[in-house]
């Protein structure tokens, strides 16, 4: 039986990496293979933008390493439909 697929939004991924707590516990379960995380190129770009932005100011090389690790434990998906119920984060 394959692992259940989940989606962790950018806020959850940022919390997992920066702050820990329950979001990190979920990410650790993804890494351990309990879940398969579905992630899109758009989500990865937003994650990179937030971590490298002025709020967190992570160095680009560190963010690239994190992105590489996320991709290694994720299934890259290409959504065919965009849902616009939540407005973009102003920053």
Specify the number of helices: 4
Count structural domains: 1
Shape: globular
Question: For the residues shown, what is the average pLDDT?
Answer: 91
Structural class: alpha/beta
What's the arrangement of strands in the largest beta sheet? 1-2-3
Spans where pLDDT lies below 50 across 5 or more residues: none
Q: What is the β-strand count?
A: 3
Beta strand %: 5-15%
Helix content: 40-55%
| C-alpha Rg (nearest Å) | 13 Å
SSE succession: EHHEHHE
The largest β sheet comes out as:
3 strands, parallel
Please report the distance between the alpha carbons of the first and last residues: 40 Å
Structure description:
There is one protein chain. With 91 residues, the chain is an alpha/beta fold. It has one domain. It has helices spanning 10-18, 21-31, 41-52, 60-72, and strands at 5-6, 36-40, 74-77. Helix 3 packs antiparallel against helix 4 (60-72). It is globular.
What attributes characterize this protein structure?
91 residues; 3-stranded parallel sheet; single chain; globular; 49% helix; alpha/beta
Helix and strand topology:
Layout: E1 5-6, H1 10-18, H2 21-31, E2 36-40, H3 41-52, H4 60-72, E3 74-77
Parallel strand pairs: 1-2, 2-3
Helix pairs in contact: 1-2, 1-3, 3-4
């Amino acid at each position: 039986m394959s692992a259940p697929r989940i989606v962790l939004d950018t806020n959850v991924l940022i919390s997992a990496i920066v702050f820990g707590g329950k979001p990190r516990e979920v990410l650790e379960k993804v890494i351990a293979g309990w879940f398969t995380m579905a992630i899109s190129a758009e989500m990865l770009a937003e994650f990179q933008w937030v971590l490298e932005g002025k709020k967190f100011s992570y160095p680009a090389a560190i963010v690239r390493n994190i992105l590489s690790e996320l991709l290694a434990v994720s299934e890259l998906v290409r959504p065919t439909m965009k849902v616009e119920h939540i407005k973009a984060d102003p920053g």
